[in-house]
């Protein structure tokens, strides 16, 4: 039969490929070729039923529709073992080229640390069977990396379609390495159908079991979410193919003088080097020296780091001193109700909100380390504050979900003689996952100091942020009623879709991982470590403040639902509206709503910021905030839950602090007040200007003053 022929044919050969880093194993020749081919054919059969049949229950991801501006049709598995995703798209490449590209997984999959071929078998029909060992990075500091042992089968079917399928083959010959968890790949792969001169139609199936039970429960959605895997692996494969096809057709226009292929390689190196920083593998020379617990800052040192570590040649311009190395400070934390895309976009556009080096002593410490100013994050000491930031786009991805840019900082530094010297600082920056409607997408902002002259061998030591959603259950079987509300999501109203399906803000979580790298000398390693630890705490606090400010904008509908059902709040809203009519003679809302719920919604969505506070002058205490509508929360950059923790004097600028009761005194004396333009401060200390304001006292049912309300008109940051 065919298998016997394959075993005895002179065309049959069994090769063993020795990897640079040998993995302990039994000789591959001990495995019978007939058994391997039987296993390969079973893998092929299972894969085809997933790729073109109904072996799994597939649910299409919202928004992934066929068309010139879409990458293809993408679906996730429902009710299956592990996580599964399937994609189909048309790419302008021939089938053999598609297969070669996809099989070289480390060249496009940024979470793939290493792939080694341990052996190969070729049949008389030209099909190949390969035995692979693959490592995948951990996406955070709180979980271990994964590895796989798989058999990959490449063959041409009778209908001339090309198939590459793969499945775990764990025979005990390759045990998991230290620091890795052995994961399982169920039948997965690529079905490639030639489509004449147009190119090829590609079907991609990824089906994995990441052993989610071995991670903390709060992080399991990261490994149990088919949507997350679809974005990171399945959709990434289609995007890479489409990008290569467009480059070959001359449709990609890159900024600067670098070719698209060079920019793509730089992008891959930035992302992979950031993964190395997050994982800090001991075999790469990293040594953990400090860790204060799961949610705190950890410090790792690499005294053997050099350009060779990242595959570059040592040159006079990039050579590190032999008496130093690289320090990495990293941490992870959980945030509530903050979508990754919005947070990362804010961090990119408002660098001064988090990149504050003040009081961290990095300026003094790193000034004595010449290498730090070339290789580490401390190259930006003083660069973010008081300097002009000029982004220079280098490349956009096909769907504009990723941006690579060269960021230039211009400013002046004081020279030794007291005169100011012009200084320019550059960052190569990668920002991806910033599409708010992409369900399950991870977002990150990664940047590496460079000298401004980019090239293939530019030395990169990146730092940055990664935000991964932990609340994608509505696409992973936890609440499939979400699929009845896809229209809401397709219109970009994610909060409405979440509300309609009963998903509360407490279930919408993200994990943020932060890693910063610094160069050090042996004589100042301890000082750099202390300063880096202190700076990381500053960054963490800044990110938490930013997240708190972003949350109400995202979850306003959720906040509306929780507040509108409270009797006390409804009573207060009615008193606000009725007291305004009495004091100013006009309706605050412009019309009379039919019921209490509509009354609350109209006040909540009022375009002006309406804020209420209580007054207890007899106790000589400050006014206390008790309520604000959506615009008021946005103006103060806080949430309903945190409003009462905000102090009245925190919202006043220096001139108003001289008389903190001035505005309220005017209202109490005459029952209302017209206030001129002025400045207030948000909870984050940002100045908020308003054109004018109205103040009036709120009367309860006994005609006694219950509190004071202010309405700030035409406010802006």
Automatic annotation (TrEMBL):
Keywords: DNA-binding, Homeobox, Nucleus, Transcription, Transcription regulation. Residues 29-253 form the START domain. The keyword DNA-binding applies. Transmembrane segments: none annotated. One of its GO terms (molecular function) is lipid binding. PROSITE patterns: START. It comes from the Eukaryota. The keyword Transcription regulation applies. PANTHER family: HOMEOBOX-LEUCINE ZIPPER PROTEIN ATHB-14 (PTHR45950). This is START domain-containing protein. It comes from Taxus chinensis (Chinese yew).
């Amino acid at each position: 039969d065919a298998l016997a022929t394959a075993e005895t044919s002179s065309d049959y050969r069994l090769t063993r490929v020795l990897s640079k880093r040998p993995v302990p194993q039994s000789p591959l020749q001990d495995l019978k070729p007939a058994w391997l081919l039987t296993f390969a054919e079973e893998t092929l059969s299972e894969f085809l039923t997933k790729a073109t049949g109904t072996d799994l229950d597939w649910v299409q991801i919202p928004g992934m529709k066929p068309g010139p501006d879409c990458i293809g049709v993408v679906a996730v598995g429902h009710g299956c073992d592990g996580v599964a995703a399937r994609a189909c798209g048309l790419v302008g490449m021939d089938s053999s080229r598609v297969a070669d590209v996809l099989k070289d997984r480390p060249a496009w999959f940024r979470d793939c640390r290493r792939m080694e071929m341990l052996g190969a078998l070729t049949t008389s029909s030209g099909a190949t069977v390969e035995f692979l060992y693959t490592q995948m990075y951990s996406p955070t500091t709180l979980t271990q990396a994964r590895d796989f042992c798989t058999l990959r089968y490449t063959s041409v079917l009778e209908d001339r379609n090309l198939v590459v399928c793969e499945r775990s083959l764990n025979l005990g010959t390759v045990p998991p390495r230290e620091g890795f968890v052995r994961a399982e790949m169920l039948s997965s792969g690529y079905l490639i159908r030639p489509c004449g001169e147009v190119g090829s139609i590609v079907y991609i199936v990824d089906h994995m079991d990441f052993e989610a039970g071995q991670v903390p429960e709060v992080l399991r959605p990261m490994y149990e979410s088919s949507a997350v895997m679809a974005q990171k692996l399945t959709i990434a494969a289609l995007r890479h193919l489409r990008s290569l096809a467009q480059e070959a057709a001359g449709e990609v226009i890159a900024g600067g003088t670098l070719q698209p292929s060079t920019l793509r390689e730089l992008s891959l190196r930035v992302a992979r080097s950031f993964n190395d920083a997050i994982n800090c593998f001991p075999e790469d020379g990293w040594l953990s020296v400090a860790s204060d617990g799961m949610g705190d800052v950890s410090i790792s040192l690499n005294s053997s780091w050099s350009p060779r570590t990242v595959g570059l040649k040592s040159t006079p311009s990039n050579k590190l001193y032999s008496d130093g190395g690289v320090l990495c400070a990293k941490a992870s934390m959980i945030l509530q109700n903050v979508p990754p895309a919005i947070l990362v976009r804010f961090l990119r556009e408002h660098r001064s909100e988090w990149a504050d080096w003040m009081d961290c002593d990095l300026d003094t410490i790193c000034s004595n380390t010449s290498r730090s100013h070339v290789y580490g994050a401390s190259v930006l000491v003083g660069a973010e504050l008081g300097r002009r930031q000029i982004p220079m786009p280098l490349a956009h991805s096909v769907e504009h979900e990723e941006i690579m840019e060269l960021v230039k900082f211009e400013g002046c530094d004081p020279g030794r003689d007291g005169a100011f010297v012009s200084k320019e600082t550059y960052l190569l920056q990668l920002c991806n996952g910033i599409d708010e409607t992409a369900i399950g997408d991870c977002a990150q902002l990664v940047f590496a100091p460079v000298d401004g002259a980019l090239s293939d061998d530019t030395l990169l030591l990146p730092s940055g942020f990664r935000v991964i959603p932990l609340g994608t259950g509505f696409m992973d079987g936890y609440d499939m009623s979400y699929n009845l509300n896809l229209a809401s999501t397709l219109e970009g109203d994610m909060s409405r879709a979440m509300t309609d399906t009963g998903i509360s803000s407490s279930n919408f979580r993200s994990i943020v991982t932060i890693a910063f790298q610094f160069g050090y000398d042996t004589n100042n390693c301890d000082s750099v470590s202390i300063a880096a630890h202190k700076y990381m705490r500053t960054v963490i606090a800044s990110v938490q403040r930013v997240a708190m400010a972003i949350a109400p904008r995202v979850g306003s509908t959720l906040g509306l639902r929780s507040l509108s059902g409270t009797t006390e709040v409804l009573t207060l809203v009615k008193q606000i509206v009725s007291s305004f009519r009495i004091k100013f003679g006009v309706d605050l809302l412009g019309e009379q709503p039919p019921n209490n719920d509509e009354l609350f919604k109209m006040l909540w969505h009022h375009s002006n910021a309406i804020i209420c506070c209580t007054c207890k002058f007899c106790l000589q205490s400050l006014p206390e905030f008790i309520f604000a509508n959506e615009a008021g929360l946005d103006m103060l950059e806080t949430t309903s839950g945190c409003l009462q923790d905000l102090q009245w004097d925190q919202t006043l600028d220096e001139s108003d602090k001289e008389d903190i009761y001035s505005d309220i005194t005017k209202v109490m004396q005459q029952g209302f007040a017209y206030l001129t333009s002025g400045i207030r401060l948000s909870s984050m200390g940002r100045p908020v200007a308003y054109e004018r304001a109205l103040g009036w006292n709120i009367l309860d049912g006994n005609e006694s003053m219950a509190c004071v309300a202010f309405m700030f008109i035409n406010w802006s940051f």
